[in-house]
Amino acid sequence: MTESRNKGGRPTKPDAEKQSLTVRFRVTPCQMEILQRQAKENGCTLSEYARGMTLNGRVVAPISPERLALVAELTRERNNLNQIAKVQNGAGASAKADELERIIAFYRTAIQKIKVHDR
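The structure assignment produced for this chain is given below.
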C-alpha cells in the first residue's frame, strides 16, 4: 500500500489555474523583433508580454531587484523613524534631533533615486 506524503515545496495549482493551453499566431520577422524588443524593455518574457497585451492591453513590468532593495531600505528607515517618534513623545522634542536629521536626509536621497529611476 502506497501512502501519499507531502514532499514539501510549492503546492500544486488547481487545473483551472494552470496555464496549460497554447495560443499560436503568426508574425513577420519584423513584427517578431518588435515583440521581442518590447518584451525585453518591459523586463518580461515574450510569453508574459503577449499574454499581458492580449488579456489586459498593457503589461505590468516586474519590479527590479534594485527597486525592491530600495523599498526594503525605506521600510527599515520608516520603522526607525517610528521608534524615534515614540521616544520623542516620551522624552521631549529635542532628545533625538540628530537622528531625525539623518533619517530626513536619507529619505531625500532615496526619493531622488526613485525619481531618477522613473525617468
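Interim note for the steering committee: The mean pLDDT is 80. Residues 58 and 68 are 22 Å apart (CA to CA).
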